[in-house]
UniProtKB/TrEMBL annotation:
SUPFAM superfamilies: beta-lactamase/transpeptidase-like (SSF56601)
Record Pfam families: Beta-lactamase
This protein's name: Beta-lactamase family protein
Signal peptide bounds: 1-22
Keywords associated with the record: Signal
InterPro entries named in the record: AmpC-like, Beta-lactam-related, Beta-lactam/transpept-like
Residue ranges constituting the Beta-lactamase-related domain according to the UniProt record: 38-338
Amino acid sequence: MTTQKLLTALLFLLFFSGNSHAQTYEKKIDSLILSGFGNQNEPGGAFLVSKNGKTMYRKAFGKANLELDVNMTPDHVFQIGSMTKQFTAVAVLILEQQGKLNVNDPLSKYIKDYPSGDKITIHHLLTHTSGIKDFTKMKALSTIAQKEMKPEMMVDFFKNEPVDFAPGEKFEYNNSGYVVLGHIIELVSGQTYEDFIKKNIFEKAGMSHSYYATDRQLIPKRAYGYHQKEHGFVNKTVISFSVPFSSGSLMSTVDDLVKWQQALNQNILLNTSETKKAFQKYKLNSGEEFTYGYGWHLKDINGTPDREHGGSIFGFKSMGVYIPSEDIYVIGLSNCDCHSPTEITRNIAKLTLQSVKK
């Protein structure tokens, strides 16, 4: 066999084996997703896997709108619920980078009448260690769920509730802390939370299909949210987005969330030292370490460290998993709170990690 023919044969084998591997990988992911999103006549979801910023997998399943019989596409816009907290945390760090606040500042510096505000710091709010009452666990929540609430009205709603524990004593996931952070962002920046996120994050990262949620404006390619009842699917419960506010009111797409991750990786939004603050583990007063940074859970997949966060809001669920050592990002978005992408997204990340390490 001539050298030329040998090279051609080798290239063919490499291409064929690479192509075969890609097809097997795709089928395995399809199988994982179809276990929870298999009915194409139900609300569905969108999933994306990227490595080094390049897309390895990108597909949508089910319906974006049941009434109009519209199929889901990867371009559809979803509410992302508590994944919003990542953006709020980075917004706080942007303000720190600008010299406008410090994460060790006491809450009383910004909200003078906040009970025990001299003992609670911005750091406590970011890490869910403040001990303040989570408004989502308050019985009175239904009385304001559909009202237009200003940030200070939201803070007033829960600030006089008895605290659950002293600041720094324990980690307990808390939506109120992130609402307070949104209020501080507005006070310090002189802008609305919506405008600050849009100008300092969405526009800089090129996230042109991400928004502060609204039911009043037209959102191109909006996926509609659903609940599942005994008799079938119903439209999601309507709430005022001013209630979850900076703890859960953003909307995005799978592609925009990859841009978000890339902007963090490339220090487009924050310098290295500020970025590091978001992704390091911290300690309680007792010295015990806990697995949450600023806006991200810091866990691992089979011993490989990852950063992850999910979201749940009426009609929608979301999940994002990032593996820094391999620059793998997996995102799953669902337009029914009956279909959780959490475990599926983690399993896709696990499969992808195994695939790239072969």
